[in-house]
């Protein structure tokens, strides 16, 4: 009798919440749980992750993958830096492994999401791809010849600090116009709140004023309802995203570009201007094979599912 294939638990540590899933060998989510992110101490974060693993693990759970919101040392699995967490460098891979009693793999959360899309998502069948996630921050993962690009230390593909809008908003790094502040989920929400304050009687103004939805989600809802300012916001963010995507494609020559994160729920209202600007800026676009820009398949599960798949693949 053939033994059932192993499963893994995937953890996606975000700035405000931690999501956990148990993933079958074919990438299906069999169980899920979440909790708030303890940001003050490594011990608190480890305890929260261990608690989630206990809630979702099954009899065939063989490993745990953890996507972390920052720079992860590829050699040791330690967290080197994470702007959303308050503690300094910590050996999280080893601490979590001791707490859960299973092999643990740690990586950057966008790398994990890129792996999910490479293995089973919008990049399946392609050995070279770039994934960009637009969310609370901006993440990027690159797959080259079927392997994640980590760089010398594990810190590669920090696309958040590519300049996409010279003279644009101030970034925490001290420079202006970085992709991670000019064009991502928080940028959409901020522009939405500004527009709502200026025109409170508009559809966007009413949606945000009622407080029934997140400001970023309200922009998408208003745009789908024809609100002119909401459409302009998505066009602006999409265009700036196209600037960044073209820079990455010129650097890495991928077969496909994938865009994930909450704003992608706006569909073509965001992706169409991104594709148009991408095509304008891609070097020698007429002399190379087409590079499609696709929406991610896994949406908000990408980081957790990818972390689980990384754990299974590295255990083989």
Keywords:
5-stranded mixed sheet, 316 residues, alpha/beta
Q: Can you tell me about this structure?
A:
The protein has 316 residues and is α/β, with parallel strands linked by helices. It is 40% helix and 20% strand. The protein has helices at residues 42-56, 92-100, 109-120, 179-182, 185-198, 203-210, 215-224, 228-252, 268-281, 302-315, and strands spanning 7-13, 17-23, 29-36, 61-68, 71-72, 79-81, 104-108, 129-134, 138-144, 147-148, 256-260, 293-295. The strands form three sheets. A five-stranded mixed β-sheet has the order 3-2-1-4-7. The chain has a five-stranded mixed β-sheet with strand order 10-9-8-11-12, with helices on both faces. It has a two-stranded antiparallel sheet with strand order 5-6. Strand 1 (7-13) and strand 2 form a beta hairpin. The longest helix is centred in the last third of the chain and has 25 residues, at 228-252. The two termini are 20 Å apart.
């Amino acid at each position: 009798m053939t033994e059932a294939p192993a499963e893994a638990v995937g953890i996606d540590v975000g700035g405000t919440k931690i999501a956990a899933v148990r993933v079958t060998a074919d990438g299906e989510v069999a169980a899920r749980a979440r909790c708030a992110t303890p940001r003050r101490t490594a011990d608190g974060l480890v305890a929260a992750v261990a608690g989630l693993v206990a809630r979702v693990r099954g009899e065939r759970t063989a490993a745990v993958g953890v996507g972390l919101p920052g720079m992860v040392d590829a050699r040791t699995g330690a967290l080197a830096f994470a702007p959303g967490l308050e503690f300094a460098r910590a050996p999280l891979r080893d601490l979590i492994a001791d707490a859960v009693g299973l092999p643990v793999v740690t990586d950057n959360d966008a790398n994990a999401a890129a792996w999910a899309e490479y293995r089973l998502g919008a990049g399946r069948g392609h050995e070279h791809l770039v994934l960009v996630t637009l969310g609370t921050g901006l993440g990027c993962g690159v797959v080259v010849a079927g392997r994640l690009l980590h760089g010398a230390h594990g810190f590669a593909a920090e696309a958040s600090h590519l300049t996409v809008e010279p003279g644009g908003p101030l970034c925490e790094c001290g420079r202006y116009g970085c992709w991670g502040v000019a064009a991502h989920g928080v940028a959409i929400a901020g522009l939405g709140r500004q527009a709502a304050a200026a025109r409170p009687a508009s559809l966007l103004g009413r949606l945000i004023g009622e407080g029934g939805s997140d400001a970023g989600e309200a922009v998408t809802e208003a745009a789908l309802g024809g609100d002119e300012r909401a459409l302009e916001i998505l066009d602006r963010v999409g265009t700036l995203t196209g600037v960044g995507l073209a820079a990455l494609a010129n650097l890495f020559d991928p077969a496909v570009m994938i865009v994930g994160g909450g704003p992608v729920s706006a569909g073509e209202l965001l992706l169409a201007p991104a594709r148009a600007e991408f095509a304008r800026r891609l070097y020698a676009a007429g002399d190379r094979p087409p590079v499609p820009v696709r929406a991610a398949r896994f949406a908000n599960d990408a980081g957790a599912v990818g972390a689980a798949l990384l754990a299974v693949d590295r255990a083989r």
